[in-house]
Amino acid sequence: MNDPRRSLPSVDALLRAAPARALLERAPRQLVVDAVRDTLERVRLDPAHAPRDDGAWGKAIEAALEERQRLSLRALFNATGVVLHTNLGRAPLPAAAIEAMREIAAGYSNLEYDLDRGARGSRHTHCSALLRELTGAEDALVVNNGAAALLLAVNTLASEREAVVSRGELVEIGGSFRIPDVMARGGAQLVEVGTTNRTHLPDYTAALTPRTGAVVKVHRSNFTMHGFVTDVSVEELATALGEGGVPVVSDLGSGLLLPLDEWGLRGEPLVRDAVRSGAAVVTVSGDKLLGGPQAGIALGKRDVIERMRANPLTRALRVDKLTLAALEATLRLYREPARAAREIPTLAMLTTPVERVRERATALQSRLASAGHRTSVVSSDASVGGGSFPTSRIPSAAVAFEGDAVAMEAALRRSEHPVIGRIEDGRLLLDLRSVPENDDASLASAVLAAFA
Ligand SMILES: *Cc1c(COP(=O)(O)O)cnc(C)c1O
After folding, report:
1. Taking a C-beta distance cutoff of 8 angstroms, is the pair 240, 204 a contact?
2. Crossing angle for the helix pair 405-413 and 440-451, nearest 10 degrees?
3. Could you tell me if the CB of 387 is within 6 A of ligand 1?
4. Which amino acid residue places its CA nearest to atom 8 of ligand 1?
5. What is the C-alpha to C-alpha distance for residues 291 and 288, in angstroms, rounded to an integer?
6. Which of 44, 162, 276, 419 is the most exposed place for a label (fewest CB within 10 A)?
C-alpha cells in the first residue's frame, strides 16, 4: 500500500523552502513554524488534497499563517434582521461615541480628577448629571452591565435580608443569566410570592416582614404572557409600600429613552416613566434600546444610589473610561430627540421606513446580479432583539439567494469579512434592517468576495 502520509515533507524541509523563507521575513518564526505544523496536520487528515509542489505548500502555509494572525474579535455584518443581537455585540455605537472614545483612549483624562478643585474626583460623576436630566431621576450610577446594576441594587438593599419577587418574574434573561440566581448572589434570601400567571398586591404585602430588604419587579423583556394573567405594577406597589417604606427595585432591562410608537413599536416602558413610578431604583442596560456601550445604569432615589455607590462591590463592577466616554456622548444626543433617532444607529435602523430598506435591498440585489448571482428581493420580518419588544415584528426587506442555503450561509460566515444572514424556508436571506445604511457598499463587496 502506498500511504501518501509517508511521503510528507518534514517541518524543517518546508521551512527551508523559498515560500516559507519569504513568510519568515514578515512574521515571527514561531508563528510560521506553527503554521507549517497546522498545514501538515491538515494534510495528514485529508491526504487526497495534499499540495503537489513547493508553490502549493507555500500557499497552504500562508493561509494557515493568516488564520493564526487573525484577531479573535472581528467586525462583521449583521444581516440577520435582529437589530440588537446579543451574540453579535448588540448596539453599534454612534459616530459621536466613537469619537469620544478615540479621544479619551489616546491620552489622559479627568476620569477621577476634579479639575475645579485640583483634587481627586470620582468616575461616578461623569454621566450622572446627564442621566438625571434625561430621566428625571434624583441620582444615577453607571456599572458594567444591566446584570451588575441589579446585583448591586439587591446587594445594597437586601443583603442578608429578604427580597420579595413574584413567581411570574423568576425569569431567564438569556445566556445563563437567571434573575433568582443573580438575586441569591446579591446575598438576598428570595421570597417568592404569587403564581406564574397571577400575582396580586396582597401577595406582596403578606410577605413583608421586618427582614424584608426590597421588593424586586422584573420587566418581562423577552416574552409576553396572555390569558388569565394578573400583575401588580411598580406604581401600585410603591404606593402601597409608602414613601420611606420597603424599597422597590425595578429591573427594566432595555433603556428606552424615546417613545417609538410612531414607528409601530409599542409596549416597551420608557425609562422616564419607570423612574416616575416610585421605584427606589430602576436598572437598565446601556447597549439595548439606549443604543450605547455595554453598561448598566441604576437610576433612583438619592439616598439609595448613594448607598449603592458606597458599596464595596461597586469597585468590582465599575466601568472603564472608554465606556463612560461612549455613554456620555450617546446620552448627549438625546437632548435633541430627532438627532438621537438619526445618529444613534440602533434607533436609525429601527425607524428607517420599510420602503428605504427595500430600495437598499434592491441596490444590493442588482449589484449581486451583475456579478452573476441569482437572487431576489423579498419582504421580511425583522425584530428588535436584545430582550425588547419581544412580539413586535418590524417590516423589512431582504435579498434571498437561490441555491444551497446551508453552504452559502457558511461561506459568508467563514469569509474574511464575515456576513451573518439567516435561513428561512430553506433560503438564505440577508436582511438589511439590521445593517447600518453606511455599510451597504462594504457589505456588497464582502458578499462578492466571499462567493468569489
Ligand atoms: C437584558 C436584561 C438584563 C441584563 O442586562 P445586561 O446589560 O445584558 O446585563 C436584566 N434584566 C432585564 C429585564 C433585561 O432585559
Report:
1. yes
2. 110
3. yes
4. 146
5. 6
6. 44
Cα–Cα dist 286/295, whole Å: 5
159: region left, alpha or beta (phi > 0 left; psi from -120 to 50 alpha): beta
Grid coordinates belonging to 117: 478643585
From the list 376, 381, 346, 344, the residue with the least C-alpha distance to 362 is 376
The CATH topology of domain 77-87+347-451 is Aspartate Aminotransferase, domain 1 (3.90.1150)
Name the region of 105 (left: φ>0; alpha: ψ -120 to 50; beta: rest). alpha
Ligand 1 centroid–CA 427 distance in Å is: 32
Question: Looking at ligand 1, which atom is closest to the CA of residue 148?
Answer: 9
pLDDT at 3: 55
Residue 1: its pLDDT value, please?
43
What is the mean pLDDT, run by run of 10 residues, along the chain of 452 residues? 66 91 93 95 92 91 93 96 95 98 98 97 96 98 96 98 94 81 93 92 96 95 82 93 92 92 88 96 97 98 98 97 98 96 97 97 97 96 85 93 97 96 97 97 97 90
Per-residue confidence (pLDDT) for residue 5, from 0 to 100 = 54
Task: Delimit the domains of the chain by residue range.
Answer: 11-65, 77-87+347-451, 95-336
Whether residue 221 contacts residue 195, with contact meaning beta carbons closer than 8 Å, is answered with no
CA angle 93, 385, 285 (to 5 degrees): 55
Q: Which of 11, 79, 80 is nearest to 39 (CA)?
A: 11
Fold for 95-336, please state it: Aspartate Aminotransferase; domain 2 (3.40.640)
Q: Residue 181: how many CB atoms within 10 A of its CB? A: 14
- Ligand 1 mean position, distance from CA 147 (Å): 6
Neighbour count for residue 248 (Cβ, 10 Å): 27
